Structure formats: C-alpha cells, structure tokens
Amino acid sequence: MSNSAAVEPTESTKQNSFDVLVIGAGPTGMACAIDAQNAGLRVVLVDKGCLCNSLFHYPSHMTFFTTPELLEIGNIPFSSPNQKPNRTEALEYYRKVAEHYRLDVRQYQRVERVTGRDGAFTVHAADTLGRAHTYAARKLIVSTGYYDLPNSLNIPGETLPKVLHYYGDPHPYFNQDVLVIGGKNSAAIAALELWRHGARVTLVHRGPSMHWHVKYWILPDIENRIRNGEITGYFDANVVEITADSVRITTPLGERTLANDFVFALTGYHPDFTFLESLGVRLEGADRTPACNPKTLESNVPGIYVAGVIVAGKRTHEIFIENGRFHGAQIAASLRACL
Question: How does residue 14 score in pLDDT terms, banded at 50, 70 and 90?
C-alpha cells in the first residue's frame, strides 16, 4: 500500500466517501458492517462476487455442521425447520439481513489496490467490465475469507480443464470415472454424493485414513463405502500426474495408473496473502497470521482492520462464521473510540 499523501478527492470520489469500507461481503463482513453502521458510521461493502460469494459457491446440497442460531448476525433470528440449515436457507437468511439493515453492497467489484493513509484511504476497484470505481474511506476492514484460492498440488496436469477445486452438483458426473483428492469433510461429502449419483469414484488421501475432522455422521458412511468396495480408496497415497484420460498415483503397494474423466482436488484453500501484503499488513510465523491487536483487530497498518478467517492465517480451521461474526463488535468498539 502506498503511504503517500492522499490526493484531493474528485467530485466523483466525494459521492463515494465513507467512514468505513469493508472488503468482502460474506457473513463476517456483513456483521462488521452492521456493527459499524449501528455505531453511527457510514459504511460500504465491496466484493468481487455476489453477496456471500463463498457460500454461493458451496455445493448446492450442502448442509452446515452447525445450528441456525450460531449463524445469526445483526441480532436477526435465523428461523429454520432443520436442526442443521442448508446452503439455500443460509443464502436466503443473509439476503434478508442485508435488506433489513439496508447494507450498501457494491457487488462484482474487485479491489485492486489501496492508497492513502489512516483517515484518508482511497480504494481502487474494477468491475467485471473493467470499469474503474474509486472510494474514499477513513477506515478499512478486510474480511476476504479464503475460499477463492485453492491449495495447489504442484503436479503435471493440474491445470487441465477436467481438474476442479470446487464441488457443486453430482449430476454432470454420472457414469464417469471421478477421482477425489483429500481426506476431510469436503472430500468425503463429494465422494459420497458422486457415488450415490452414478459416478465411479476413487478417493486418494496422503494420510493413513480419513481425517479425524470428518463429522461423526459422515465418517462411518465413507468408511463403509470404501470397505464395501463401492468407493475405491487409496491411503498413504499421492497423485503425481494427471493426463487427459488417466491419473498416476503412488501407493504403498507401488505406482498405479487409473482411468479418469474428472478430478476433484479438494485439498483446502488459503487466504490471499499477496493482497494483505500489498496493504502493508505484516504476516507472521509459519502460519502467516496477520499482525493485529487481538482486542481491536487493527493490523500493524493504522486504520486497517482484519476480520474473519484471515485472522488465523493458514489455520483456516480455527475461525468460521460461528466465531468470526463477533469480530464486528470488537472492531466497532475501536471505531467508536477514534471516529
């Protein structure tokens, strides 16, 4: 981020001036915006995708591993007939929350850079047509999540069109040879749904068994399918090459080449560390956690706050909607004191 003095705002910029700009319009970003708005501040959210973009790209039949009340933001009840709500219900809920609070959400605008300093930031964004949008903000909150950047396999063939890092719907893979890479919840769920909808499924995991993070009602299902030979499982195994019609894997019993039509590389995701560093945020330790005040969540860059899963760096399993939603209250308390 440039530390140069802020340029005198144009008339267009004056019309887009805010006390607080939130980068990322997921549940945590929304919670931050609501708390700041309730503190009497003028707030805007900017997101490169739609409202709750990551949730939208979750599997179409996904069920949360939590109860509705733990997903609530803004003191708005999340009513659901299900003990564990699904993706569709969650998207409906967050849309209603955005409408209730009349949140100013600028969708489909990617923040490209930030200039200026605490009290006088200029945020430069571009929409899907490449048009520039400029915002002035006194404070910034970065709540960009981590779901947009999959962890790479670093193997030949990873960039082939048939290799997917996101699982959506099982129907297109009926009667196809599908390889699922991974051993946690997303891999288990994808493998089970694909198998139940007519795909020939092989699961490859580098560990000795499915990960202990797999939910207790899913784990016996995937283990039984593998034990019965309905899903082929390779453990202590790695994919070393992907070709147009096959995959090559190493196993404890040697190397094997398997017929293949599609690969789901569900190996996890990571925050956009490059963007954080471009803002001047210092990343610390092997987990690359952003330097911040644990009470206020203000980063080492004055006026820039971090919220949600990015607070934990690479430890993406530590912060979810259930606890990230409270970051807004911490930040709002700091904003009240200085604005």
Answer: low
Q: Assess if residue 222 is contained within a domain.
A: yes
The total of structural domains in the chain comes to 2
Domain-terminating residue out of 203, 237, 265: 265
Does some domain include residue 158?
Answer: no
Give 174-208 pLDDT, tens digit per residue: 999 999 999 999 999 999 999 999 999 999 999 99
CATH of the domain at 203: 3.50.50.60
Is residue 30 within 8 Å of 97, Cβ to Cβ? Answer: yes
- Mean pLDDT, residues 147-151 taken together: 90
- Looking at the domain assignment, is residue 50 inside a domain? yes
Confidence of residue 7 (pLDDT cuts 50, 70, 90): very low
- For the entire predicted model, the pTM comes to 0.89
Q: Is residue 155 a part of any domain in this protein?
A: no
